[in-house]
Amino acid sequence: MAILIKSCFVVVLGTLLGLALTFISLERGFGFGAVRAGPWTGWPKTGSADIDPYARALLSRTGAIPLGTGEGISFLARADSDGAPLNPRCEYVIKGPMPPARFWTLSVFTPNGALIENAAKRYGFTSAEILRASDAPAEIILASTAHPGNWLPTSPTSPYVVVLRLYDSVLSATAASLDSSVMPKLVKGFCR
Amino acid sequence: MTSVKMTSANPASFRLNLFKISWLDWLLASLLWLLALLFVAGLVHIVSVFALPELAQKDAYSRLSALTQPGQLSLLPAALPGQEYAPFEDPALVQGVCLYDLDRGPLELSADIIGDGLLTFSFRTRTGRVFYSMTDKAASHGKIDVLILTPKQLEAVEADDDEEELPQELRLTAPEKKGFVLINALAAFPSERANIEALVKSMNCEILSETNK
């Protein structure tokens, strides 16, 4: 009888533990195949047939539709180049080289992937839209108040993440490891 | 108890031994239970990770079925706050979708590539897993022509092939019967959006009737 009770206990507790482990591993985001360069993290394999089971489970839960490897690659930044999490009350500048790609887009989302409402109705930039100084790489300003130049509005109350997408880029096939020098920097500016 | 008499020359040391043995027993037994617990937990974890995409209440295909039907090209709603079709959608994209159900016949996707805007295509299973993806650079003679079929349908098509001429279209065998094609077209400037939408709408998705099933 004692053994029966113990077995039941083990099965119930084991099931709970296993489900908790699944929940935690999905909460923490894609486990395998992540490529990091500076503040940017990409998951090149999620867009191919050899996507890992964790990424599949996560995508089925969130409903996100990642880019196919032949289409391009996307990178997510949750922190600045110093490793500090992005603070919605601070301004950031994205500057430096963009990796080679036919087009890139840069957009801001809540951590759950929703767009952030703003009066300017601007949710992202494409590489074609960017205003550039004649001989300097592009700079994009993330701020909750209006700025001249390439201003991407954020909300002072909503936490956000930055997504950089490289379309038709050689990186998507070769991004097993990445040198952070080819990726733009995310530099913290003024905080209110 | 007979064993007590045999070893009870020194009752104190006997008690100590008994304590040691029962302690070891207890340790081994708990270790066994702990292993069983870990085994069950590991099993549940692995099974649940693999089962999640299959059990997902609404997989990509069934969510898209609410918007369109197989063999018909439809535009996904533009990404605006509160109206996103999926999380982390690129707001600069115009997205078209085309469902296939190979039980009804192979799907043919054809598109004329006009201009030098960015067009990408991904071929996906029911759950959204990509089995093939490409950009407009894969076009030949300014046209994209793709046929999605089951291995059996491919055989039938190949049997009809002219031996002297190479097939003009790209033939893809899908790993599952149901799935979808996602077409991404970049509106490089917001003012281009209407034109890009028209371009995506001009593409053609069609279920081919099977001559020999």
Largest interface: A-B, 58 and 57 residues
Secondary structure category of chain B: alpha+beta
Radius of gyration of chain B: 31 Å
CATH fold-level assignment of the largest domain in chain B: Immunoglobulin-like
Q: Which blocks of ≥5 consecutive residues of chain A have pLDDT under 50?
A: none
DSSP E strands of chain B, number: 9
CATH architecture annotation of chain A: Sandwich
* Average pLDDT over all residues of chain B: 86
Which structural class best describes the helix and strand composition of chain A? alpha+beta
Count of domains of chain A: 1
Shape of chain A: elongated
Task: Characterize the structure shown.
The complex is a heterodimer of chains A (about 190) and B (about 210). By secondary structure, chain A is an alpha+beta fold. Chain A is built from three helices and ten strands; from the N terminus they run H-E-E-H-E-E-E-E-E-E-E-H-E. Chain A has a six-stranded antiparallel sheet with strand order 1-2-3-9-5-6. A four-stranded mixed sheet of chain A has the order 8-7-4-10, with no helix packed on it. In chain A, a hairpin with a 2-residue loop joins strand 1 and strand 2. Chain B is α+β, with helices and mostly antiparallel strands and about 210 residues long. A five-stranded antiparallel sheet of chain B has the order 1-2-8-4-5. A four-stranded mixed sheet of chain B has the order 7-6-3-9. The longest helix of chain B is centred in the first third of the chain and has 45 residues, at about 10-55. Chains A and B meet through helix 1, helix 2, strand 5 and strand 9 of A and helix 2, strand 4, strand 5 and strand 8 of B.
